[in-house]
Amino acid sequence: MRKILLVALAIFFSGAMHSQNLYPEKYDGCHLSNFCVDCGDTKANPPKSLLDELKENFDKKKLSELKGTIEVQFLIDENGKSCLLSSINKTNISSKKLNLPKVFNNVSVWTPAISKNKPQNSSVCFIFEFEGEDFSMRRRIFDFKNQKNMKSIGTPAIKGSDKNELSKNWIVFTQQNSELPWDMTRAVANDLDNNIWIGTDNGIVKIQNNKWHHFNSKNTIISPTPYDKNKTQSVRDMEVDKNNNKWFLIGWDAYKYDNENWTKYDSINSPISWARQLFVDHSNNVWFTSWKGVAKFDGKSWTKIDKQNSNLPSDKISGVYVDRKDKIWIGTLEGNVVIENGSTKLLDEKNSPLSKAFISKMYEDKKGNLWFYLEKEKSSDAGIYKLDVFGKWTRISHSDSKMFSENTVNDFYLDEDNDSLWLTINAVGVLKYDLNTKKWEVYTNENSNLPSIHATRITKDKDGAVWIATYAGVIKTE
C-alpha cells in the first residue's frame, strides 16, 4: 500500500468557514454548528491506520474495480470523532454504490485540531487515488497566507509555432491594464447586441461601447464564496440564448440574467445537480450537463435525460448537442448516443470515431456538416473530427501526435467567415487551423504575448475579433 502524501496546494481560502460543504455531494447526519477549515496551531490528523481501515470498509469487489479519484471533506469534532461532510467522485463507480458514508465514517478517532492549547472543531480535505486495491491519499492543504489573485502562466507542454509564422497579435486585458475584476477567467461570450461578457473567478463584466459594467455578489443575487464574503463565486461557463438572456454556471448553480433581473436555478427549483456545461440549442432550449444526466429547460418547464428514462450508458455526461433535425447527441463517459423521436441509439459502429472516444463539444456548420471534439484521456482517438452531410468522417490532425492525445481541448470555434478553426488546449495555449491551407498556428506564452498556457472559452464579436478567456487575463485579436 502506498504511503500517505501531504501535498501543499495553494487554494485561496480565508481561515474561517462555518457549516460549509466544499464539494457537491453532501451527506446527511454530519453537522457541527461551528468549524474552521484546515485550522489550528496543530491541525487535525487521521489515525495512522486510516488507509488499512478504509480498505476493510470498502466492498472488496467494487474496490478491485475502482479507478480514479475521490476528494472528500471530513468534519473532525473537538473529541476527534470524524464524519463525511461532502465529496466529489471522479471514479468509474458512483458514490452511492460505494456507500461512501459507511466507508469513511467507520474509522478510529482522529487527533483533533488544537488552538491555544484547546481542541476545536475543524474540517479537513483528502484526495484518494484509486487503482483497484492499491490506493493512496494526500491531504489538500489550504494556503491562507497567499490570497493574491490566482495566476497560471506555466510552461507549454508542446512547442509553439515559429514567431514569423503567426498571423495574429493579441490585445491582453488584465487587472493591471483594464477594469477586469480578476485575471483568472473561464468564460467569454458575445451577446446579440455585440456586447462582450466575461466570467471570472471574482465577478462578471460586460463591455458595452468600451465601457465596463460589473456584476458581482454585492449588486446581484450571485452568491459570494463561502470563505470570503467580499469575493464572488467563480463563473465556470456562460451562454447567450436567442432572446439575449445570459446564462451562467456559477459555483454549483445556474443563473439567468434577462438584462434586468437575475434568476437562480439550483437543486431546489430545478433538476440541476452541479452542472458542468451549458448549451443553447436552435429552439432556444437551455441544456445542462452533469454527472447525474442532462437537464433541459424550455423557458417554462424542466425535463431530464438519464439512464432510467433514456437508456444512456452512463449518467456522467461529457457533452450534449441538438442538430437542425432535432437529433440529440449525448456523450457519456461510457459511450455516445443519439436520441431521435424518443428512441435512443448507441453509437458503437466500429468504423466510427464515436465508438472510441466520447463527445465533449459539437457544432453544425452552415452546410450541415457536424464538427466534434471527442475526448478520451491519454488516447490517440481523442481529437477534432468532421462528419459531412454524406456520412464521411474527416479527422483534423496535427503533426504532433501528442497535441490531442495528451492535452485536453477546452473549446473550439469554427470561424466560417474566414475558413478557420480556433482551439484552446489546456497546458498549451491557442491553436488556429486554416481550413484551406491545412496549416496550424500554435500560440503559446513563449512565442506570443498570450499570457497563459491555460486558455478556455472562445467567442467572436461582430467586428471580427476573436476573444478568448485565459487563466491570466482575457485576450482578443487585433
Q: What do these coordinates show?
A:
The relative contact order is 0.11. Strands 1, 2, 3, 4, 5, 8 and 9 form a seven-stranded mixed sheet that branches. The radius of gyration is 23 Å and the shape is globular. The protein contains six helices and 39 strands. It folds into two domains: 5-141, no CATH class; 163-477, Methylamine Dehydrogenase, Chain H, CATH 2.130.10.10. The chain starts with a strand and ends with a strand. With 478 residues, it is mainly β. Strand 22 (286-290) and strand 23 form a beta hairpin.
Features:
mainly beta, Methylamine Dehydrogenase, Chain H, globular, disordered N terminus, signal, WD40/YVTN_repeat-like_dom_sf, Reg_prop
Any chance you could write out the topology, listing elements then pairs?
Blueprint: E1 5-8, E2 25-26, E3 36-37, H1 50-57, H2 60-65, E4 67-76, E5 82-91, H3 95-98, H4 100-105, E6 113-115, E7 118-120, E8 122-131, E9 134-141, E10 170-173, E11 185-190, E12 196-200, E13 203-208, E14 211-215, E15 224-225, E16 228-232, E17 235-240, E18 246-250, E19 253-257, E20 262-265, E21 277-280, E22 286-290, E23 293-297, E24 302-305, H5 307-310, E25 317-322, E26 328-332, E27 335-340, E28 343-346, E29 358-364, E30 370-375, E31 383-387, E32 393-396, H6 402-405, E33 409-415, E34 420-425, E35 429-434, E36 440-443, E37 455-460, E38 466-470, E39 473-477
Parallel strand pairs: 1-9, 3-8
Antiparallel strand pairs: 2-5, 4-5, 4-8, 6-7, 8-9, 10-39, 11-12, 12-13, 13-14, 15-16, 17-18, 18-19, 19-20, 21-22, 22-23, 23-24, 25-26, 26-27, 27-28, 29-30, 30-31, 31-32, 33-34, 34-35, 35-36, 37-38, 38-39
